Amino acid sequence: MRSIRPSFTARRGRGGRRTSASLTAVALVSVLALTATACGGDDNADGKPSAVSTGDGKITIPDDLKHRLKEHGIDIDKWKHGAWKNWNRDDWLREANDFINPIIKGLWDPDRMRDADDPDQGVDDNDISGDQGVTDPTPQPVQARAVTPPYHTSAATSGKLLFDAPEGTMVCSATVVTDPAHPGKSNLVWTAGHCVHAGKKGGWYRNLAFVPSYNDQGKSAAELENASRSEIAPYGVWWADAAKTSQQWISKGGETGGDGASYDFAVIHVTPEQGSGGKSLEETVGGALPVNFDAPAVPQVESITASGYPAAAPYDGQLLYQCQDKPGRLSIEQSDPTMYRIGCTMTGGSSGGGWVETGADGKPALVSNTSIGPVRSGWLAGPRLGEVAKSVYESVSKQFAGQ
């Protein structure tokens, strides 16, 4: 079995996954966010901003934020110029409790976004252990179908989550979800825990940014070679200024296997890189999905639709796909909740993508996200959302409730 891992580039990288522990534990993180703007908008040949400025050539940072950054040994000017690439293991682990994600304008240029694809990291089916005796037979593969473009019309809440890890540039999939503190004006995004944090042997990933309706027109890889940033990211690039996952994932998650898969979820709060004229992410894309933390038991769910941008062969990460199937049950550990499992041929890069069920009211709601799958694609599994997931979600919402 493999984690449907983030995708990796030829400067490539990969990421972590799942977890377990107390049902009320939530990884609360400090929010240290500011903006670094490329002077004149000119980038160096390697795609990195050539300089940083707030418009007058200076960066103004509140004193309390300066002190908090210094506590972590972070010089923000050096960070903006590439110091974020320093993945000293001790420092990374030391910062594991604090999510630090300064906005670096222009960092996610078309090349960086397009090149974040995934060879994937797999593990064997025999890594599934501790079965509670409720795991259903392996589902038949369901061929993923390409979503009809424009994606903004057919799947407005879907997008890509881009980030950097010690091994390189990576990508997952993610979904815009509602915010109870800001009805109709949400800036919340749902994804997998292994798409924001490396788990027990690492810390938070860096330069996390969400691109809603990535490649909205469904252009081929060849057509995207010379595409502008606005063509690839028509609704902007939204940087995470907060990220939270389960303590179960942080304390137990690893690069392979099923550890923590039942708690492999995360919520991020985003802010637009270029400004959005006061509009929220939900207003910008035209929708957000509610999250159902009390979804029916697996046998009672008739159909689930999973969405994502698969990047490992035979896919190339540029197009949005979906799989629809009646879920079965997958048990990883006796002490952990049973997971949903569906037949699906999507591969790495689809990790974190939303799983949607139409409820009794006839309306769609997010009930899970892609977490793991077999070495050879054919099925996907995702956590059933309960009290831990609800705590993660509500904590992010409350953090920005007064803003």
For the termini, the CA-CA separation is: 42 Å
Structural class: alpha+beta
Helix content: 10-25%
Q: How would the global form be characterised?
A: globular
How large is the count of helical segments?
10
Number of E strands: 22
What's the rounded overall pLDDT mean? Answer: 81
Main sheet, how many strands, which sense, barrel? 6 strands, antiparallel, barrel
Using only C-alpha atoms, the radius of gyration works out to 19 Å
Beta content comes to 25-35%
Uncertain spans: 8-25, 27-59, 119-124
Question: Going across the major beta sheet, what is the strand order?
Answer: 9-10-11-14-13-12
What does this molecule look like?
The chain is α+β, with helices and mostly antiparallel strands and 403 residues long. Helix content is 15%, strand content 25%. It contains ten helices and 22 strands. The protein has helices at 63-71, 76-80, 89-94, 110-115, 151-154, 221-224, 229-232, 247-252, 281-285, 387-399; strands at 2-3, 7-8, 30-32, 35-38, 52-53, 98-100, 103-104, 145-146, 158-165, 168-177, 188-191, 206-212, 238-245, 266-272, 304-308, 321-325, 328-330, 339-344, 354-358, 364-369, 372-373, 378-382. The chain has a six-stranded antiparallel β-barrel. The protein has a five-stranded antiparallel sheet with strand order 8-16-15-19-20, with no helix packed on it. A hairpin with an 8-residue loop joins strand 17 and strand 18. The protein is globular and about 55 Å long.
